[in-house]
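Dissemination and training. As part of the outreach component of the grant, students in the summer workshop were shown how a complex can be specified as a set of sequence lines and then modelled as a single object. The example used during the hands-on session is reproduced here so that future cohorts can follow it. Participants entered these lines:
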Amino acid sequence: MAETLKLSMKGIVKRFGGVVALDSVDFELRRGEVMALVGDNGAGKSTLIKTLAGAHMPDEGVMELDGDAVRFTSPQDAWRRGVATIFQELALAGKMTIADNIFLGREITRTVAGIPFLDRRAMHKRSRELLEELDVVVPDIHTWVEYLSGGQRQGVAIARALNIDADVIVMDEPTAALAVAEVRKVLEFIKTLRRQGKSVVLISHNVQDVFEVSDRITVLRRGRRIGLLETEKTTPEEVVGYITGAAETKRRPEAAH
Amino acid sequence: MARFAFKAPSRPFRIGREGLLLAALVVLCTIFASQSEFFLSERNLTTILRNSVDLAVVCAGMTIVIILGGIDVSVGGIVAVSAVLIGRAYQYGMPDWVVIPVGLAAGALLGALNGAIISKTRVPPIVATLGTMYIYIAVLFLVIGGVWISGLPNTLSFLVLGDFMGLPAGVFVIGFIYVFSWLLLRRTPWGQRVVAIGCDEVAARLVGIRVDRTKIQAYALLGLFAGIAAILYVARLRNVEVNIGTNIALEAIAATILGGANIRGGIGSLIGTLMGVLFIKITQNGLVLIGVSSLWETVVIGGLLIVVLILDALETRRVS
Amino acid sequence: MSFKHTLMGGVALGLTAALPASAQDDTTRIAFIPQIAGIPYYVAMEEGAERAAEELGVEYVQEGPTSTNAADQLRIFESFVNQGFDVIAISPLDEETLKPAISRALEQGIVVLTADADAPGSDRQFFVAQALDQDLGYTLLDEAVDRIGESGKIAIVSDSPTIQSMQNWIAAIEERAETAYPDIEIVSVDHTDGTAQRAYQFATDAMTRNPDLKAVLGMASTTCPGIAQAVEAAGLVGEVLTAGYCSPNTARDYIKSGAMPYSVLWNPADLGYLTVWVGDHLADGGEITGDFEVEGLQQTIQYLPENDVILLGPPAVFTEENVDDFDF
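and obtained this result:
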């Protein structure tokens, strides 16, 4: 492939005591691509994501970002290199405003008499721009995040990732527990990100969502990658088959009993 | 592209709490004023202010610590240890410019010790500071050695008892501490960290906030304020007694909660806290003036505290 | 009971538990439990007691709660019982709390005395009294009247209302005012949490409420500095008199500044001395039936049989003239 991958992981092994959570998993992500990551519970999705996010260190394997070998030592380390993972809990402070959340930990300051004061005006301006780009509609930038809907919160979390110029955005079950209209909105966010040239990893249980927004699909099962599919060339049935192991069974009937 | 109108209330109606407290203050003052001709006298209002200074100073720090999701029940012990060191320093003939840093440093160090224990051991703050409370009281007894420190110089008493530009000097002390605290809490990145930790510590860590360091700093700030309170206490009363600091922690926590801080962290109001301090001090003063036994003071304060906590619980339920 | 009181009580328990359990069967062991540890008054009492213990060849231990907490006092009392002391003297904070424990100790053959403060409803054998509550009350008020005249308003600031001796003094003052000085009015009695800050607040508020207030009387060493400081801060030295039951060291500065021209108390060293003397005497099987002399004390000790009270003598009044003769 002529084009260097945005991100690639090769031969990733992660063990917890005697349990092998990831058994030499390969993973890749192109620029401007939405890669879905699917698999049953315990397939290794969240271990892989945590490795990608810097929360776990792999026992074996290599990771490359823009063709350079990298090792993330912490989630902050990953964020600094432009790989932003939005966990299900979103890492939002409920009793702080939208703008304050977007800039949490990276506030814009103006130094007066040697003291760094918050530059709220600049932060509000940039927050509005970010939300505008993503087409997130919120009643007021001063609203506490606690009072936002699930979809709006996803929007704020994504805006925070965009604010640090992350070009890999990993979203862990962003549509879980959302109302239908909200799910649609979040999927729109993902499409917007792709249009902006961002690479997105979408972890989801919902095959329908996956087919709506993804370009390719990585399927994990029992700590291995058992499928890397082009979304346009596959069907939900086939993907479900991979997830449940039915596809495997078809190919290797002797393992059925 | 379709725009979705999300329905969500704006910021919670925080005026509610401060308004409630203001109403309670007005009611209280009206009752006291109608029962005692002296209540609204300039001299009495000045007295209330002077009596509020040390509690108010401690409360500014307590508000920040409670917003952080912490609590410090050892703050009376910090006041006590700082005061006894201040007293000893005076006895050794040290001048004010030595004594003041001694008091401040002692307070800040003990506060930082609390913060370090809480952040490094992950012991719940109420338990950790309960433990240090014992230690600080023991230190007080060891240093004081059975002999009260009395007859200390009153060179600093102007800070509480003096007048400046026609107002009691204490007003300026309180004003300085609260403006400083407010700027720190609401206008600097450090304040954002404090609120974020109070909202969700895990989230704060995820965005890269150095949680432990921020906690130690917040507790140290409370300790520093306790050191200031100790200086003001000694300056005004010129002695260090065995029971010094009794009830300061309880009164400070009560005032802070009355003022709208949520014991679960994330929420708090310095203005509200200041009103909580005034509520407590006005109750203490007014009951004496109208000739009601001072034992009722706890009933009035406790009663309002319960009202406030019920309102809190109702609001929490409404949100979730 | 305040939060910190409870905490300090915990410290007291720790200290008690750490006491060495020395037990020499032939030496009489005498314990005394003050109302609070670490205040100069009881330290002075301990000095007198130690002096008596040395002269009489007995062992003396003094241990009190770190705050005026009756429950802690009870635990300390019981720990002395369990350690097999021959004589236990106590200055009770709360009679009801201690009553059953005192009875049990007596059943075990321990000599139980009250000293410094009494628990008249208990089975204690004798009360070693510094001065009669009545004399103390009368003296404090009489001395005040000498200075402010026979009419006017007086406010009282006391420590915790559970301290019986202070309640008795207040009652004596009120009775004296009623019977001897009909134009003296006691306008208020307030109770602090043991801090100078609260005493200061109460005194200031009393002066505000009563612009014609003539005196503020403090019932305990914990209140004296606060009330004197309040009068000084209000600029009313000479107009509002303060006085109280407090040690010369606590009152000295205010006696000299004129804010608190006198203080009424007794010599606690002598009281400690007498307590040990009586304890040793009873432990040796001695009896007390009338007035007696004690080697080492100047005055004759009175015995008041109706309440089994052993009386050290009349209260002492500390003023500018004699305050420097005392150090406690």
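Chain C has two domains: 5-130+267-313, 133-265. Students were then asked to discuss how this feature might be tested experimentally.
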